[in-house]
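Let's practice the habit of predicting before peeking. Look at the sequence and jot down your guess about where helices and strands might fall. Then scroll down.
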Amino acid sequence: MKTLFLILLLAPIAFAQNVIEITVKGISNQQNDGGQQDRLEAILDAKRQACEKAGLKIESKTTMENFRIVYDRIETGAASVLLPGFQLIEVGYVQDGTYQVVLSGKIKILDEEENISNKEMRYARSLKDRGKDGECEDILTKYIDSEDKEVTSELKEEALYYYIKWGYAGDIEEEVQKFTAYYPDSKYAPSLESFAAFAIKPVHVHNKTYKSNAEEWQQAELVHDNISFTKKIDFTADTVVFKNFKGQDQTILLHFTLLSDQQVKPITAYKLVITYYNGNINRPHTEDEVKVVVDKLQEFYSGGSPVFESSSSGLGFSDFRLTGFEVNGDVPAGKGPFEQILQFKIYQESF
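Done guessing? Here is the structure:
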């Protein structure tokens, strides 16, 4: 029985949900094993190439004397990436004695994290998915900084890659430069360099002034810390849509409101709610898809300063960070006009 190669399929190396068209030539070996066998070898070679283009990487070639294992591995991989409707064109035997076929069609590019091989790296991914970023970061930095000879250079490389990709790098540009200096031939380098070039620029800059006056107060009710606000002015219900690193829509919803009670010396306040969800505003979405970034209410008492300023060093949401956050303006007392300024920038932090 002839010796064949066992294909080991490892972690995918591209982004999820992408579909691309391919055309590959499959070639049998030159041992002339008979028409049916040569044809099958050519088909498997074409499907193996399709798997590689989809992100199922060949790490090593281990000799096996069981054709069934090789066949099952490649067929299973191809079934997960080849979309229905692909064509297989028989070329037949050519001058060098090999049998050839041409496979064309569409493949699904898989998510690189669908098949992380190291068990602690998979655990780190699960921690991140559950919002336990501190524990996830600890595992990654343990590998990155390890002096243990059992921790391979490949594992350190992978840990540093995910450290940047999952949003733990304080200075993305600097960390990517460090990565490419340490691992110049890494398969991850091109995507990291593209990400760094994208991430140093804000995906959205917000700097707006909102104005209103006392004639715009409406009857309303909001109880906060035992204070019943009975009047409100809806400054804005802005919608911001921007593109993320993958070219997909992200939607930010801003709701900025002034509040007042009806006492002789009224207590006033502003309430700012910033939420987001993945997708365009025109796409139907459910309530549980909308996540809160900021939900802030600030109160002002009579006799205090007529102006205010409120800021934050940075707020994270999904794969982004809101920085330079600042709200300032006139305390909404008297007839107005009331002027409020809302400023922030949004940067992509992970991908």
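How did you do? The domain at 4-109 is CATH 3.30.1660 (Dodecin subunit-like).
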